[in-house]
Automatic annotation (TrEMBL), chain A:
Signal peptide positions on this chain: 1-25
Domain Solute-binding protein family: 83-438
Membrane-spanning intervals of the chain: none
Keyword annotations of the record: Periplasm, Signal, Transport
Gene3D superfamilies: Dipeptide-binding Protein, Domain 1, Dipeptide-binding Protein, Domain 3, Periplasmic binding protein-like II
Name of the protein this chain belongs to: Glutathione-binding protein GsiB
Primary role: Part of the ABC transporter complex GsiABCD involved in glutathione import. Binds glutathione.
Any GO BP: dipeptide transport
InterPro entries xrefs: Peptide/Ni-bd, SBP_5, SBP_5_CS, SBP_5_dom
GO cellular component, one term: outer membrane-bounded periplasmic space
Localization terms from the record: Cell membrane; Periplasm
Molecular function per GO: peptide transmembrane transporter activity
Family indicated by similarity: Belongs to the bacterial solute-binding protein 5 family.
UniProtKB/TrEMBL annotation, chain B:
PANTHER family: GLUTATHIONE TRANSPORT SYSTEM PERMEASE PROTEIN GSID (PTHR43386:SF3), OLIGOPEPTIDE TRANSPORT SYSTEM PERMEASE PROTEIN APPC (PTHR43386)
Protein name: Glutathione transport system permease protein GsiD
Major subcellular site: membrane
Lineage, opening ranks: Bacteria, Bacillati, Bacillota, Bacilli, Bacillales
Cell compartment(s), UniProt: Cell membrane
Membrane topology of this protein: Multi-pass membrane protein
GO CC, any one term: plasma membrane
Function summary: Part of the ABC transporter complex GsiABCD involved in glutathione import. Probably responsible for the translocation of the substrate across the membrane.
Domain ABC transmembrane type-1, first and last residues per copy: 91-280
GO MF annotation: an example: dipeptide transmembrane transporter activity
Origin superkingdom: Bacteria
Amino acid sequence: MTMNYKKITWLCLIVAMIMAMTACAKGPSDSESASSAKNDKDITIAVNQNFTTLDPQNVSDTLSISATHAMYEGLVGFDKNMTIKPVLATDYKVSKDGLVYTFNLRKNVKFHDGATFDANAVKANFDRIQGSKGSLTASHYLKNLKDIKVIDDNTVQFTLTKPFSAMLNKFAMIPMISPKAIKKYGKNIGLHPVGTGPFEFVKWNQGESLILKKNPDYWDSNYPKVNKVTFKSVPENGSRVAMLKTGEADFVYPLPEQNVKSLKSSSDISIDQTESTIVRYVSINTNKKPFNNKKVRLAMNYALNKDTYIKVVKNGFGSKLDSTMSPKTQFYSKQGVYEYNLDKAKKLMKEAGYPNGFSAEIWGDTASDTMKGMQFVQQQLAKIGIKLKVKAMEQGTLSNEIYSPKTPDQAKVQLWYVSWSPSSGDADGATRSLFSSESFPPNGANTAYYKNNEVDSLIKKANKSTDPDEQAKIYKQIQKDIYSDAPWIFLGVDTILSGHRNNLKGVYVLPDGSINIKNAQLK
Amino acid sequence: MAEIVTKTDYMPKSRGKLRSFCAAFIHKKTAVASFFFFCLLIILALIGPSIVPYNPQTPDYNHVLQGPSWLHLAGTDEYGRDVFSRLIVGTRLSLGVGISSVLLGAVAGTILGLISGYFGKWVDKTIMRICDVFFAFPDILLAIGIIAILGPGLQNVVIAVAIFNIPSFARVVRGKTLEVKEMLFIEATRSIGATKSRIIFKHVFPETFSTIIVYLTMNLGTAILAAASLSFLGLGASPSSSDWGAMLSMSRDYMGTAFHLVFFPGLIIFLTVLSLNIMGDGLRDVLDPKSKD
């Protein structure tokens, strides 16, 4: 047994020595480049999570969307500012009543397996989604689709059952898979991606890396400009930064906020900031006591200093959330912030009947950023007497706890520190599933159990409207109603931080947090 | 068979024992130094919260992540809290968890060991086989398993660490009991009709006491380390508390930018465990020289 203690003692000693050494060895090694081992036209991108699937019509996480967007394209797509532009369609027409969408398709486009892209290929894709009976995530976008007609080889026409204002955004979220591959691989298409995009699939080592190569027959002959792209999953913040410093990775996302300062001094590395559609908030279960009292919710909003939140938790990167959605989201309307006012918060608590506060739990995942945020909220709310217990749960357990209750009364969640970003970039994606009473878990993400009949009917009205001005007006009212009801503690809007080596150009992160590599180019 | 004589005049000899122990222990210089360090930690654990320069829970958002200075001896953390004060206040948590878990494990393990060693036969076999099963698991893995069942929290960390301490105490005490049981004075006590429980607790137990003390000190180090590891993994103390392991866990993201956040909690854990091990080694040399490998 004594050997054991000796070993432990030695281990402690060695760990302490290593710690002391790393502390001393800061600085000079930053600028060394080790990219010599790689081919000149290959790039490596380090990301913080694993890809979950490569089936473009069944992805639900933003990172997997990054990968599928490199291999697949939809009829329309998003540009850098999340505005819609034609991709596999050359142009499109929407009828006045908002029911008929006609797309003229791009000619001479081939899938990676040689199949031709035409109207029948489009139909095969939409048939696949509708035939899935809701099991593919893309089928949620097509709830209002009545039928799809092949007019000629290069023209397709979609008819909706009722107008749906965000339909074009949803089309952008539906990439086209080779009909030949759909037949060949069936359900396993997620492991054998075949699209029309600038990059072809090579290999996916699940949990480790994803390798793509150049599509030589890409329809836009100016692209792609690199031969090979490797995505690597590196969850540890420090390792990702180290890879960027040594040149092992050419692009990293996300870049930890606390490393920005030290990386800025490096001459080989540039840091990009993108305003995002990612909003951070604490959802308050408005169905539970004492949170059903609006004054309590307002008090919580006033008690939280948002400037300090951005400064401490986000290291200065981000902005205050002044509506239910980010300024980058469609139909955003500024509401003004619940500015930090402790006296007002205390007064509201008193009026609500809780002059001495109460105890509650705040939930979140185990990511270090979330833990930091939750503790900050804990510290701030302690000032008005609310004693929070921070409960960090592993992602799987957490979503099970939140989404499994069948009725609002079974829900145990009180406060949830979380973020949301609408990948389709439209106001509907940032509103309906968060605030409509139809979206109570398990049907959606309305974890505040927010129910406001006026908001419900306004959301329906906005979906039916075909006039952008009218929609803007409706969404303005929706945001105003929700913001004044305070079903959330409104915290901030993320600034997306990514880092790249200076010889790499053209890779960027979209406001929703997905990476675009189409324009990647090495100098 | 000096033992028999010892037992005949219990009190005076015992005082002599303590004196001879002190005389021997004083020569172990490092062990004595470790002993004083440990005493200092105990004092800090007792009076720490009232002597700290800053409130360990009060954030100061204008001074976040500052390096060590005269104002903040160990720097400030990501919320601007004084790391030095947090470490001092955390002593109570970390030592408390370590001591209470080892004590719990020692009490349960000693009782099992005494029973197992004294009664022998199937009782001994059953208890020792169960201990073997527990020995088959790596300590931390076993603790994680127990916490997975009980749920995270400091209280459950104490239970988990106590449970993985039981078998090692049981085995050591059993060995000593087997040895003592065969001695003449036990034979004599038995022959004058003393009850079994009297023999076990009044006569066998005191003989195993020095072994237990040595073992306790040594296991204390591992227990503190284990409790810190569990808190580091997010299974123990709440991340906002000033537990050493939890402090390390929250600061690992700043390893490259603010080394003091990892360094000082790491250092104090290291020093505590090291001092306990050295102290344990010294105690063993004096009290229980036979058990040295």
